[in-house]
Structures are given as C-alpha cells and as structure tokens.
C-alpha cells in the first residue's frame, strides 16, 4: 500500500511526456582546438591561461590530441603538438 502511494505521488510530481525533441549538444567553440593542425598555435591573454589549459586537456584527452601552453610575451601561446 505504501509503495502504491509513493508511486502515485511520483507520477503526479513528474508527469511523463512523449515526443519532446532533445535539444542539440552544447559545444564550446571559444578556442579553435578542433581546427588546429600539428604545429599551429594561437595567442591568449595571461588571464585566460587556466581556462585554456583545462579546455585543451579535456578536449585533447577525448580526441587523441596534445597541446602545449607556454609563456609568450605578455600572454601565452597554445600549440597543437600531436
């Protein structure tokens, strides 16, 4: 009896809907990582460096690529190395 009441309460709070299309995947195209060939690079400001290091690590591990981020002038330069 208690299970039936719980089931009815859940169904009332969360009605099931059919035929609702799923939205497309959200992509982050802030940095040109997908378009880069080995040896290509781009410049970023020093304030962006932590965010870019995370983005290159995440993207590289999922796409079998490697990137390198080095101090360059008053900012950083990101190279695709593999």
Tell me what you see in this structure.
With 82 residues, this protein is of the alpha+beta class. It has a domain at 36-82. It is 33% helix and 21% strand. The protein has helices spanning 2-13, 49-63; strands at 41-45, 67-72, 75-80. It has a 3-stranded antiparallel β-sheet, covered by helices on one side. The longest helix has 15 residues, at 49-63. The chain is elongated, with a radius of gyration of 23 Å. It starts with a helix and ends with a strand.
Describe the structure in brief.
By secondary structure, the protein is α+β, with helices and mostly antiparallel strands. The protein has 2 helices and 3 strands. Strands 1-3-2 form a 3-stranded antiparallel beta sheet, covered by helices on one side.
Instruction: Please compute the radius of gyration using only Cα atoms.
Output: 23 Å
Overall pLDDT confidence: 88
What proportion of the residues is helical, as a percent range?
25-40%
Q: Looking at the structure, what is the overall shape? A: elongated
Helices, by number, come to: 2
How would you characterize the largest beta sheet?
A: 3 strands, antiparallel
Give me the secondary-structure topology.
Layout: H1 2-13, E1 41-45, H2 49-63, E2 67-72, E3 75-80
Antiparallel strand pairs: 1-3, 2-3
Question: Which keywords apply here?
Answer:
82 residues, 21% strand, 2 helices
